[in-house]
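Entry 14. Structure prediction run on the chain below.
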Amino acid sequence: MADARAAADGGADRLEIVRDIRRGGLTPPVALVAAIAAAVTLPLRVMVRENDGYETDPSEVPALQRAAVQFARMGVDGLVAGFSRGGSPSIGDLSLVLDAAPGVPVTFHRAFDSVSDPLTAIDLLARIPQVDGILTSGGEGTAEARCARLRDYSARAGARLAIVAGGGVDEEAFALFAKAACVQVIHVGRAARDGQDPEGPVSAASVRRLRDLADR
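Output returned:
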């Protein structure tokens, strides 16, 4: 709860809730989501993911569906989910999960970064009504190169869905992305935490500094 309160105090717009951050973020306990929802008024996006890869298998689907239903009933702002297979978004696997919680908005997470044709993937995901955003690092390379890709992704997505910059976004990259306006939404992890430790406590001061960069 302390992390959620610190993020809210620092001026965050939304929270993403996960467990096992060192594994890229997995489905959190329902009790934790409920406690955070009671502690802050920020919109919550909740991860639905059972392993630290980008594929899933039939044995995991029931757990993913149960989690989606439980979080939807809690009235969260949305889910974070996504799968890829063979260099393309795994639309079938995603649909199995989303069918359990129709109408709940979904951010397609960084499985997007494993696809071989990002622009075509954007078109495919934009056809799914529940998907309202894609979380992506913008690929490898410098912050400038990533920003250029993110701008291309945003142009392709248009008004259909939001491109959310996330993954390896330190304060320098954040400042560049915000100034260049290559995306309208930036997701941070380490940059919001003391000492850039992925498991360190969220710092309200760090979040506020990022908030100020975005506002400028």
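Strands lie at 15-17, 44-47, 78-81, 84-85, 88-89, 106-108, 131-136, 162-165, 185-186.
Filed with the rest of this week's runs.
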